[in-house]
Amino acid sequence: MPPLLAEWGCDEELWIKIKNKRSLEKLAAQGEEEHAKKRIASLRETIANAAPPAPTPAPSGTVDKNRKKQIAKIRKTGPYELYGEVPAGMDASSISVLVEKRSAAKVSKDYAAADALREELKEMGVTIRDDLRSWYVKAK
Question: What is the pLDDT of residue 46?
Answer without folding.
Answer: 83
